[in-house]
Every structure is written in C-alpha cells, then in structure tokens.
Amino acid sequence: MPESYRPHLRKDDDKDRTASQSVTTNTSVGHAKVQDILDQKKGQVVTIRPQQTLHEAVEILRDNRIGALPVADATGALLGILSERDIVRKLADTPGHTLPHKVEEVMTRNVETTTVDEPLVTVLRRMTDGRFRHMPVVDGDALTGIITIGDVVHFRLNQLELEALQIKQLIVG
Ligand code: AMP
To answer: What is the pTM of this model?
Structure first.
C-alpha cells in the first residue's frame, strides 16, 4: 500500500514519545527490591534472646506493637524467629503455664531470610508459599532488618496508585 494511504498508527509516534511518557519505564513494580521497603522503615530491629521467657516476649511484642521477634545471640547472629502464632500454639498446648517457657523451646529454627537485593515479587511469593508474614533481612550472618507481608502490600498499593495516576496523565495528556 502506498505510504500515503496507510493509517496513522500509535507506534508512529514512538520516536516523539519521551521516557517520562512511558508507563513501563516509570513504574518499577517488577523491579522493586527489599531495600525499597527498608528505606521507608525507621528504627532498629527489635530482637529477643533464646534464654528469655515467653512472658518477656509478649511484653516486648505488646510494647512495640509487632507480631514477631527475630531470635538472636549476643553477637547478633540469627538463631530463629518467634511469632505470636508460636505463642498461641504453646498456650493451647500448656494452658495456664505457658509464660515461664523459654523462647528457644518455641521459636522456629529454620528461618527463611532475605537480602536487600531480592525483588519484592519473589519475597512475597516465598512468604505466601511458606505461610508466614515476617522475613528477616540479613547481610551475611548479621540481621539488618525485617519486613512483613503488610509492608509489601502497603508498598504495592502505593505503586498501584502511582501507576493509575500515570495512566490517567497519559490519557489526559
Ligand atoms: P507469622 O505468620 O510470621 O506470624 O508466622 C507463622 C509461623 O511461621 C510461625 O511458626 C513463625 O515462627 C514462622 N515464621 C515466621 N517467619 C518465618 C520465616 N521468615 N521463616 C520461617 N518461619 C517463619
């Protein structure tokens, strides 16, 4: 067909479209990493020692309004994780005398961890598959942070809002 009869296609404008007008270049949904969440979180990671009691653990959880505690030794090495769910299970197993038990009797020892470079998509997948809501962040042996499934969902929702705004701007021009 002669060039003059060809309909005008959207891709014809590609050369004029700048990077800032492209939705895919502006939304890093697939590229977001654990570090992006840590950047928005303040404060130290609250931990507990294995020899401490569940009584101390529930007080720390209450005071910090959190749902899990990484269990670390004096050097900061990660030994396990204790979540409110572990405590509830122990409460059902030992009614009336749960609180004096030690953290190390109840904690999960086989902890799945992440690093700052891991994409959020795979962290979310591992949390969903493993059915846990907390993921300690490590650098070698050292515990450097913790992210929760709530943090990931919150981050994702913000990204979706941004994405919707950008699409609106593309349409409105
Ligand atoms: P959660 O949903 O995080 O409160 O935890 C549910 C169960 O999974 C509890 O038994 C926790 O000890 C355990 N758990 C929590 N986080 C992790 C993790 N990152 N790796 C392995 N187990 C975990």
So the answer is: 0.81
CA 35–ligand 1 middle distance (angstroms):
21
What structural domains does the chain harbor? 44-148 (3.10.580.10)
Is 90's C-beta closer than 6 angstroms to any atom of ligand 1? no
One pLDDT digit (tens) per residue for the chain, 173 residues:
555 556 666 566 655 554 444 444 434 556 899 999 999 998 889 999 999 999 999 999 999 999 999 999 999 899 999 999 999 999 999 999 999 999 999 999 999 999 999 999 999 999 999 999 999 999 998 899 999 999 999 999 998 999 999 999 999 87
Q: Report the alpha-carbon angle 42-45-46, nearest 5.
A: 125
Q: Which atom of ligand 1 is nearest to the CA of 82?
A: 12
